[in-house]
Automatic annotation (TrEMBL):
Keyword set includes Chloroplast: no
Necessary cofactors: Fe(2+)
Origin species: Aliiruegeria haliotis
GO terms for biological process, alphabetical: methylation; oxidative RNA demethylation
Co-factor binding details: Binds 1 Fe(2+) ion per subunit.
UniProt-recorded name of the protein: Alkylated DNA repair protein (DNA oxidative demethylase)
Amino acid sequence: MALQVAIRRCFGEKCVTKVITDPDLTPDLTIRGVPIYRGLLDATAQAAMLEKLREIVALAPLFRPVTSRGKEMSVRMTSAGCCGWVSDQRGYRYEDRHPGGMDWPPIPDSVLEVWRAVSGTDRLPDSCLINFYEDSARMGMHQDRDEVDLEQPVVSISLGDDALFRVGNLTRGGKTESVWLSSGDVLVLSGEARLLFHGVDRLRPGSSQLLPKGGRINLTMRVAR
Ligand SMILES: O=C(O)CCC(=O)C(=O)O
Ligand SMILES: [Fe+2]
């Protein structure tokens, strides 16, 4: 990835950046309007990012959210940024603090760099959700719509084992298309595709050596507020 030059300025909760996007960066494939950049992070960049994520998890441990119906999700998660996504019996929302009461750690620069390269917006994300999938974890079809400004994109980074990512429609049901996401792949939900239903059907355990005990990490950056 070419070096991005960005000037970050924060006005209260809102962060903006001057973006100089790499003109050579083109997606390897697009499904249903979702561009996918294969291997945008090479093995070295993935390992470096993983180290940063370990620091975050040490400060703000992974927790297992429950849905508003009281069902435990199969992924464990935490967040970085000014606010983090949580789910419990009171529903889905962004919170200023981890359920344990601690601040969310800042979003690492290496993660923001990916946003700058592919997001196409001059805003910076204020939240980065970190999902950890064990071998049998999955994520049901859903829309990402808890953010205030749904015109702002969602940028997703995959690390670790391959995952079968399914993309549907703007309403639940109908035809879907699936793609295997591998470690280092990046995708963007923006524009017409911002509110497409999507989910993760299953992992391919043992497909990556990045995480010593296996599993998958997905990072999703968003402008939440
Ligand atoms: O794990 C993934 O690839 C998708 C995660 C996701 O859709 C979400 O966190 O909203
Ligand atoms: Fe999502």
